[in-house]
Amino acid sequence: MQIQLNGEAHTLAPELTVAQLVESLGLAGRRIAVEVNEEIVPRSEHADTRLAEGDRVEVVHAIGGG
After folding, report:
1. pTM
2. What positions belong to coiled-coil segments (predicted)?
3. Which among 13, 21, 22, 34 is least surrounded, fewest beta carbons within 10 Å?
């Protein structure tokens, strides 16, 4: 299936969850925020949120500084 990931076309296996996408990107356990179709997906819902053809996904890394 095709999605837009951070503004670029990306091909994924069908029925992938947000949690599986995050893991495949090597970001599991990191401080990130995920938005699907302009709505934030809480971390507690990553495993239950399935991606669909044409979804627009944004993954943002939290960067600390001081």
Report:
1. 0.90
2. none
3. 13
